[in-house]
Amino acid sequence: MFNLREEGIKSKAWPFEEARRVLNRYKNREPEKGYVLFQTGYGPSGLPHIGTFGEVCRTTMVRRAFELISDIPTKLICYSDDMDGFRKVPINVPQREALEQDLNLPLTKVRDPFGTHSSFAEHNNSILKDFLNSFGFEYEFASSTEYYKSGRFDETLLLALERFDKIQEVMLPTLGPERRDTYSCFLPISPKSGHVLQVQTLERNSKKGTIVYREPDGEKVEISVTGGNVKMQWKPDWAMRWAALGVDYEMSGKDLIDSVLQSSKICRVLGQNPPESLSYELFNDEHGQKISKSKGNGLSMEDWLKYSSPESLQYFMYQKPKTAKRLHFDVIPKATDEYHQQVRGYIDQELPQQLSNPVFHIHSGVVPESSLVVSFSMLLNLASVSSASDKEHLWGFIRRYAPEASPDTHPDLDKAASSAVSFYNDFVKPQKSYRSANELEREAFLDLISRLERWTSDLSPDGLQGEVYACGRDRFEPLRDWFTAIYEVLLGASQGPRFGGFIALYGIKETITLIKMALNDELKK
Questions:
Q1: 335-349, pLDDT tens digit by residue?
Q2: Between the chain's N and C termini, which has fewer beta carbons within 10 Å?
């Protein structure tokens, strides 16, 4: 008999491995704050993108794994760095010229180009919260502006002022000569312009809790470091937040490895241990470039959900977080089908295997049944050869293949049918390229026609696959050349489904007609 906690402590699934590192921070004692704090960070300088969602999704998986191996309460904060200065106008927003006038203001003071919220930060924060809420994530939203102005950070900011020189000692060696001369870990919010100023700290008074700096017009100004009058530079800010809140775990992208290193040093200067961290690989677009909020490249969260389920997106996020991933539309069918394969396999697995199954972490151990009796990839190919214009067209084939299925009883399948039609028309159809069969391939296709015309058994995918194999086994070396020919000649694609299953779904007569059209080059028209 397996014990869930014992198996979780032993599991090699990466969320459990991360959870054990967090647990080891406390061993047999509970944190003074009464809970373990997980945090994710978001910079609302651009619209939220799929990488932001991925960080919350993965952190939630670690949090849930921790809760299975420990009785210590947990909390997740989604922190928006919305007091940061607005340094660059994103290319994927309206009113870009107007936004140029707001450069260097805190993001919560930048106008909302969409006209729906009080600021650009508030607009982007709202989108993020709405999306995370739709996934049912349990989190507390935290605003940098609110935390600074409310005094939440005051005690740690005063400590940072007291230890200013030690923080500078960490940061200055990492900077170039010019920036090193004027760098300060404190960024004043100008009472004149409202800008977040990157200027030198001329004087410090720890007893008064103030710094003195020079405005761009030359005037010297003394300002308090508390109450939202200053913001800390990025790396010291991260460290200050860790120290002030007692953050125990925060993952970040591989591009921030140096930031984690320097912020960890500063966190120790502030008298606290830095959180456990995981450096995940970044997502790339179809050109191998890192996806970016400001560029708006790569897939958005909305893009993915137009064509597949939230669970398939979470499945994609679960896979090998330390491996770089190409995040383009063509990964959606594969992720969708693999997710449902894992769901179907879960019920027959013993507990140790279930804990390593991605769907355990997607569904926090309460895994539903899959009603996708036809794979998404198969539905795509069916949409292609049948020129389906809506999901009802596909259901005509589905009902013959699976008479027990209906949109009401198989909601996953119904949504997948609709998404397959959209995905085919948006991405597959424009890229389809049929070729003619050569003589050897023509001979094999005619053999397949003959075999199908003699077929009298049920529409067995395995039996039909055997016939497909028989046509190519003695003709092609390697055999995969035969299947490549099937995909390129009949489907206009470089890869495709298990063809026996496709025949069973599409129909014997329909497949014969398809092959004859291909041999007559009618599909190329």
A1: 999 999 999 999 999
A2: N
- SS3 readout for 246-285: CCCECCEEHHHHHHHHHHHHHHHHCCCCCCECCEECCEEC
**Rounded distance between C-alpha atoms, residue 344 and residue 340, angstroms:** 6
> Quick one: three-class SS letters along 402-414?
CCCCCCCCCHHHH
Task: Name residue, tokens 């994609």.
Answer: 316
Angle (CA) 250-147-256 rounded to 5° is 30
**How far apart are alpha carbons 256 and 279 in whole angstroms?**
8
Summarised one tens digit per residue, pLDDT across range 143-193 is: 999 999 999 999 999 999 999 999 999 999 999 998 998 999 999 999 999
The DSSP secondary structure of 301-369, one letter per residue, reads: HHHHHHHS-HHHHHHHHHS-TTS-EE-STTHHHHHHHHHHHHHHHHTTS-HHHHHTSHHHHHTTT-PPP
Burial of 525: CB neighbours in 10 Å, binned 0-12, 13-18, 19+:
exposed
Q: What is the dihedral of CA 229, 232, 238, 242, to 10 degrees?
A: -50
148 and 273 inside one domain: yes
Query: Average pLDDT over the chain, rounded to whole?
Result: 91
Q: Please state whether the peptide bond connecting residue 321 to the residue before it is cis, i.e. omega within 30 degrees of 0.
A: no
Residue 205: its H or E element:
strand 203-205
Name the residue among 341, 416, 346 with its Cα closest to residue 383: 416
Domain that holds residue 258: 4-156+233-280
pLDDT mean over 224-228: 97
Q: 6-38, pLDDT tens digit by residue?
A: 999 999 999 999 999 999 999 878 899 999 999
Least confident of 74-78, 215-219, 248-252, 299-303: 299-303
* Residues 40/76, Cβ–Cβ less than 8 Å: yes
Rounded to whole angstroms, the Cα distance separating 64 from 61 reads 5
Instruction: Write out the two tokens for 126.
Output: 């709202």
pLDDT of 385 > 90? The answer is: no
Among 394, 415, 431, where does a domain finish?
431
Residue 193 and residue 209: Cα distance in Å, rounded? 22
- Is residue 239 one of the residues assigned to a domain? yes
Strands 140-143 and 186-188: unpaired
Residue where one domain finishes, among candidates 260, 280, 300: 280
Most confident of 64-78, 384-398, 429-443, 482-496: 64-78
pTM for the structure as a whole? 0.88
The pair of structure tokens assigned to 97 is 């010229």
Residue 477 placed within a domain: yes
| 426 lies in the same domain as 446 | no
